Amino acid sequence: MDIPRYWAEASLRHKPEPRKQCTFQRFGWSSVSQDEARQHAQSRVEEALRRFLEGEHGVARREHTVPYNGAEGLPIREETVDEPLPNAVITRNSYGALCLNTPNVLFADIDLYAPGSTVGCLGCLGTIAGGAAAYWAAHSYGLRGFVLVLTTLGGFVLAPFVVAAALRTGALLKRLFRGTPAHAAVRRLEQWCDQNPQWQVRVYETPAGLRLLAMHQLFDPRGEEAVEFLKHMACDPMFLKMCTLQACFRARVSPKPWRAGVASHFNAGGTWPVTDPDKLELRRKWIEEYEKVAGGFASCRFLERIGRGRTHTEAEAVRAVHDRMCQADSSKPLA
Question: What are the strands, taking DSSP E only, across the chain?
Fold first, then answer.
């Protein structure tokens, strides 16, 4: 796992003609010092310009942050916030949430739902159904005119609240109606553990699906067993790619800001590293606002343990950090 503490940015401007110019930018990194990161950035940007001048096609001018930062082969470019264990580093990602990174304790997030589309469709259908039901009931009782219109409108208004209440009982609905995506994923996990009795996996609920944490042994993120398991559980291909390239497993351990009601975007100064003092102050204020509300939400919720394998000491230490930061044993709303 390579998560450098020090980052720097260097740029070079190429001006072949008076009215033509292009600028190349590269980041440099180091786990030793800021000076070493600056030197690395300078050598990388000089190398990029050299390749461009030699006629190589496809030389990128800039390096952008992408979803699953680190999935393009470069180290994870995020601020290091804490190192609570020798095999755990806490970083702040591109939208402001905290992430736990570990080189050998297997995490896997299984996205099962599309919250926006699912909730939106249920809300629309519920609203239409509520209005139609109110109209039918009012018409059946012989109501006419203004009273009929008022009753129908009341059905449209109340229906979304009924849908919201139903969604909040999701855990109960999952117990009542088997065959949900989450249940199917748990069945795949149970089959895996039946075939591999040495395994022990903790299962957590997340806003978008499930999170799995293997407790019985340490893993190489590039190893055949870890990759096979992630594929078996239909893990996000970009997450799998990041694990392989970075030799790292990763789990978000604080709420997504927009789910916690933080309206402002985490864009003060752009992506890490931020060096401008004014922009660093904006960043500090945003983090302060975020942390005031983040404690009211859980990032995941522990559901059950599957498998009869032993518990590895290092995995247990990472689990304790993860569960504490995620508030996984609380009843707080997920975000």
Answer: 6-17, 20-30, 79-85, 88-92, 98-102, 107-111, 201-206, 209-214, 249-252, 301-306
